[in-house]
Structures are given as structure tokens and as C-alpha cells.
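hey so i finally got around to running the thing on that chain from the lab meeting. sorry it took forever, my laptop kept dying and i had to restart like 3 times. anyway pasting the input first so we r on the same page abt which one it is
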Amino acid sequence: MHLWPELAHMPLLDHWPDRPLPFTHERSEVLAYLADRYGFDLVEAEKLFRSAKYAKVIRFNPATKLWCGIKGGES
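ok and heres what got predicted. didnt touch it at all, straight out
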């Protein structure tokens, strides 16, 4: 996808910032970032998130529970 090079630099973001409350798309920092950055609604942002995760353009750190691009955030 043409967004992968740019998305690889996504900063550290929380996809479920208010654990242990139930997950909602509206509170996801990741989805908010994708929606704002690319002009998407939350449904489109969620599709992009899933595609980027599957393509391994973004990664999850289980220790911090944060997501970032493969070239962004923590090393």
C-alpha cells in the first residue's frame, strides 16, 4: 500500500488506553492518529490498522502495550 513508508514512522500510541474498561474505537490513540493523519473515519482507520498490522508495518510492544511504526517509537 502506498501509505506503508509513511506509516512505518508512526509514533508510540496506545490502542486501548483505558484498560480494564471495555475497548472502544473512539478512545484508541492509534485509530485517532490514523483518522486525523489520513482524513479517515474510524471504520476506515480500523481497516488501515488491521492491514498495517498484518503487513507488519506497525508493531506492538507487549511490555508497554503500545503500538508504533517499525521505524518509529522505540527501537
